[in-house]
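Two proteins were folded this term; both appear here.
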Amino acid sequence: MAQHIGIVACSAEGAALCYRTICIEGAELFGPHRHPEVSMHNHPLGEYMNRIYRGDWQGVGSLMLSSANKLAQLGADFLICPDNTIHQALAEIEPRSPLPWLHIADVVAQTAAARGFRRAGLTGTRYLVESNIYPEKLKLRGLECMRPNAAEREEIDRIIMDELVYGVFKPEAISYFQQVIGRMQREGCDSVILGCTEIPLIMNDSNSPLPTLDTTRLLARAALHRAAHR
């Protein structure tokens, strides 16, 4: 039997893409129309943002732990969180978690190294790109990380929080990401991390100046393989 995947959701669009990827791509491992059992719990995004805005990462962790406990009661075997930003709270709550977690940045760093990348650009909310979540995980594998500059961080954050999380996808947003990624390419990056789980809804290998590391789908695929091999 496959393991039961628990999804600790934060923003709806990213969680939905992760869930859909598990269900659709599960057929490659489990057979037609088959995938592991999946349960998801989602506190409102606003509850997370209220805590993030005031820098209350302990409060963010409490919400994640609340979801973890509910998913454990539903029978999940392990947990994933398709939200890069709130991984800042994961290390603090992991010792108290009822279930083990797959860390999204571990999955992405492992993939980047396996694909031979050496220097990855990072996109995501300003809370993510100003954190050490990705620089630390990449450094452990001998990889470098480039952050957006201050102006780029603000505009990317605005696009994510005012548009993408609401399911609003504009050509202007795609153009802006292409501009930022193009600058990173000129400055020596060989790949780009789509470090907000909504960014893959508008950016991919076909429209990005650099090869993309799609954090949402990479996490979903890692969860499928873990579920398949127990």
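Next, the second protein.
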Amino acid sequence: MQAPETFFYQTITQIATAEFKDRGSKFIAYTFPVNNKESFKKHLEDLKKEHAKAVHFCFAYRLGLDGYDFRVSDDGEPSGSAGKPILNQIDSKQLTNIAVVVVRYFGGTLLGVPGLINAYKTATALALQVVPIIQKPVEVNYELQFDYTMMNEIMQLVKQYNCSVIKQEIQLFCLMHIGISKQREEAFLYKLKELHTVSVRKVKL
């Protein structure tokens, strides 16, 4: 049985933070909107500089819409006690294109695996409670090539169908990368076909 087609997904668009303490240890959770691994690595590097005295930087992220692009890290904590509880909180909210890093300052008392699972889970849950969750349309990317004289007509369509403009090169001959909501893709392509001089190509960005 085929899964129903998805037209929207849930994510975040801003950074949020929350703190949880247990027996002297401090767990600071940071949520970030991320679209790729490079963006995530930069956030992680910045946190390591900001919290130079912290002992662990445990994290989880999920990218894309197919559910396969994710990673968890316990960063030296017992296996399964940090990264997985963080990811479970992300998944419980059905979020994607998001990363959560929990920075731990050790307070001198060992919490044991159940205590760690609870701490990483709670810190993440608190951060996800304070960050606004938004619904975004699933977009399909296209490359449009057209003569400059067509610019007004193209921009009217882009505006009418709420396309996102990812990249554009405007010269005598123009190149534009756009994202169109999957739900409106068919209607948008039909309209483009009426503009016979526009070259349209589906792309993966």
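The radius of gyration is 22 Å. The mean pLDDT is 93. These notes refer to the second protein only.
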